[in-house]
Amino acid sequence: MVWAAELVTAVFEGGNLTEAYERLQAAHPAWPEATRGAVRDLAWTTLREFRRGGVVLDHLLSAPPATVIHALLLVALTRLRQRPEQSHTVVDQAVQAAAALIPGLKSMVNGVLRNALRQREQWAAWEQRDPEARYGVPAWWIQRVKQAHPGAWEAALAAGNERPPMALRVNLRRGTIAQAEAELAAAGCATRRLDNDALLLERALPVARLPGHAEGRVSVQDAGAQWAARLLDPQAGERVLDACAAPGGKSAHLLERADIELLALELDAVRARRIEHNLDRLGLQATVRVADCRARATWWDGRPFDRILADVPCSASGVVRRHPDIKWLRRDTDIVQFAAQQAEILDALWHTLAPGGTMLYVTCSVFDEENAAQIARFCARHADAQRLPIQGRPDFQLLPNAEHDGFYYALLRRQA
């Protein structure tokens, strides 16, 4: 419990949850797989249900406690929901954790949690009266999703609080989908093939236990993200740009589908190395450069691209169940800033696209400001931009569900 509380504390202090978890793992290399999984699950679930615990504490505390104790109390409340039959053990573990963190507050932790148990029947009513607790996101987030998706907003918000699905992409240069399905089935990994040939695992597994992963025959990639290469549809011999490429899943998918000349750009040098590592595992080759795609003079040689993948930085509101720290670190004003950055990227990349070439705009957002509204503004600025339909629609918005995360796709052609 103390380790999960440390991860939640890192987020409360403005840190990135995934990076904090990686540091914790590095500090405890001897942890068995079960311990790593338990710590991760508890921390991630606590942050997904942040306001569910928060609204309970609002009724029990007159003032916020020290940050690490606040985090510990939220972790303990999450564990009490998960294991109500072990309530006394959970409280004792929380008190022991408090003794290790701030000894002088262990009595307070004991009193708050035992008071919470005495009022347990009221938790659901408290949550229902608080929209942030009921839907698991801040009020401004609720409003944005409600406006963008009036017929599906509640389902989208609910999906964002579930455990994410796990899907695989088959490297067609090293085998067929049928072969991958057979290999997975032989190892006891039940899968279901989706419309875009993603393989959805019936049960999530550690990557190290996936047959064919180490050998580059399969990769973990969300099923929604696997639409990108299919929609951009590069052809052999074409020059293709992946403008914001890390960690490299979409770059790899493009290369797996066609013999192309690919340039992968990434602003961060550490993340750029992850692209190279992923390509090496899969036996693929591309030119990887560290550069800001908006600064064309620093990376572009003047030769136009036939196709461009613009998988732009965004709010990541569509993948929040994988990164639950996002919904509590983001602010409403951040969305306007993301939209401005996206517009800069689109305008810069458009000049590198050949006449007749196509650009696929991608976000992992469910907010209209970053998606349909962004593309409408872009087309108003660029008379030579033609929108191409996707499956008979002007664009393609995937909302998170049991099969995939939330993504937005728009396909643009530069008219000659």
Plain-language structure description:
There is one protein chain. The protein has helices spanning 2-12, 17-27, 33-48, 50-60, 67-82, 87-101, 106-118, 123-128, 131-135, 139-148, 153-159, 177-186, 227-232, 249-257, 269-282, 326-329, 332-350, 372-381, and strands at residues 167-170, 191-193, 199-201, 218-220, 239-242, 261-266, 287-290, 305-311, 353-363, 385-388, 396-398, 407-414. The chain is α/β, with parallel strands linked by helices. It has 3 domains: 2-135, NusB-like (N-utilizing Substance Protein B Homolog, Chain A, Orthogonal Bundle), CATH 1.10.940; 166-221, Sun protein, domain 3 (Alpha-Beta Plaits, 2-Layer Sandwich), CATH 3.30.70; 224-414, Vaccinia Virus protein VP39 (Rossmann fold), CATH 3.40.50. α1 (2-12) packs across α5 (67-82) and α6 (87-101) runs antiparallel to α7.
Order of helices and strands: HHHHHHHHHHHEHEEEHEHEHEEHHEHEEE
Instruction: Please state the structural category.
Output: alpha/beta
What is the CATH class designation of the largest domain?
Alpha Beta
Q: What is the helical fraction, as a range of percent?
A: 40-55%
Strand content: 5-15%
Q: List how many beta strands DSSP finds.
A: 12
